Amino acid sequence: MGVRWYAIALLTAPLSMIAVLFALSLTSPLFLPGIVTTDDKATLLLTGIVAGLMVGFFEELGWTGFAIPRLRLRYGVLTTGLIVGLLWGAWHFLLFWESGSFSGALSLALLLGRLFSWLPAYRVLMVW
């Protein structure tokens, strides 16, 4: 695999999020990405990269390194993926809810749809 595939893998999620935020910002300026509204773009970008890598590493260590092997001893691939996906969705929903980062009912509906529909299916593929 060349550099192109690594770039696609690393940039797909952030660019997708920025595109969605720009589309949502047409309805409300609260959705404008921080990279657009801040004066210190380098610090924001560096902080986001470091935090994303650290959080991603430890989160995957917990879900994939701890929870999945133990659940796989008891359940099949599909059940394990659904359990972990639903737990992951509930965990992140509570974090977003507590942080107060929701911006209206549209955000809540989109988040709930995402967390409880396609993420468990994605986790099934990750377990498999």
What does this structure look like?
The chain has five helices and no strands. It is mainly α and 128 residues long. 84% of the residues lie in helices and 0% in strands. It has a domain at 56-127. The protein is globular, with a radius of gyration of 17 Å. Helix 3 packs antiparallel against helix 4 and helix 4 runs antiparallel to helix 5 (105-127).
List keywords for this structure.
5 helices, single chain, about 130 residues, mainly alpha
Q: Quick summary of this structure?
A:
Helices cover 84% and strands 0% of the residues.
- Class derived from helix and strand content: mainly alpha
Taken as a percent bin, the fraction of beta residues is: under 5%
Helix proportion range: over 70%
Q: Termini separation (Å)?
A: 22 Å
The unreliable regions are none
User: Mean pLDDT, as a whole number?
Assistant: 75
Shape: globular
How large is the count of helical segments? 5
Q: Over all CA atoms, what is the radius of gyration? A: 17 Å
Please summarize the sheet with the most strands: none
Could you spell the SSE succession in H and E letters?
Answer: HHHHH
**What's the count of strands?**
0
